[in-house]
Design a protein that fits this description.
By secondary structure, the chain is mostly helical. Helix content is 80%, strand content 0%.
Length: 82
């Protein structure tokens, strides 16, 4: 496995905290970018769902009813089994 890290091995103990902080900052920046991307995707999904519910409200009611019936049946089967 080839490592892509270009930093050299610390020559003394005083360089280790600096490298740790740099690694932390890089990791933090990557996580912030991931969270921003995930937030954008979630907003787009919510907007998509909202548009479709606004266009077809009775279909949304039917889907919600069906999902509730299935969930209720599953809960009833599990509770009878115990």
């Amino acid at each position: 496995m080839e490592y892509t890290q270009t930093n050299k091995v610390p020559s003394n103990v005083h360089e280790i905290p600096t490298q740790s902080e740099d690694t932390y900052q890089n990791m933090r920046a990557a996580m912030d970018e991931y969270v921003a991307s995930a937030t954008d995707m979630a907003r787009e999904a919510c907007a998509y769902a909202d548009r479709h519910v606004q266009q077809n409200p009775w279909t949304a009611v039917g889907v919600g009813f069906g999902a509730g019936m299935i969930f209720g049946a599953l809960v009833a089967m599990v509770s009878r089994g115990k």
